[in-house]
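Raw record, unedited: IRF5 factor
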Amino acid sequence: LIQFQKGQTPTPPPFEIFLCFGEEWPDQKPKEKKLITVQVVPVAARLLLEMFSGELSWSADSIPLQISHPDLKDRMVEQFKELHQLWQSHQRLPPAQPPAG
């Protein structure tokens, strides 16, 4: 993710997780032809990718996390808000100058 944000890699890292039930996988058959497949999208990974790619499509005040423990959700939302604020302030800083001499 950091390499993508710095422009060192052309494509973002994948964050989706695919699970296949009742059949061998991977094999020659594409996942769309499997009987039962599940795509899991970790919200935290998607939000980090959107934030670092500049495609921020969420409001920091309304992150739709589905976490069973409410205290954990609150802490996680606060951490994302702090990370977003740090990232925004980092984007505004002028590039670091090498020391003279």
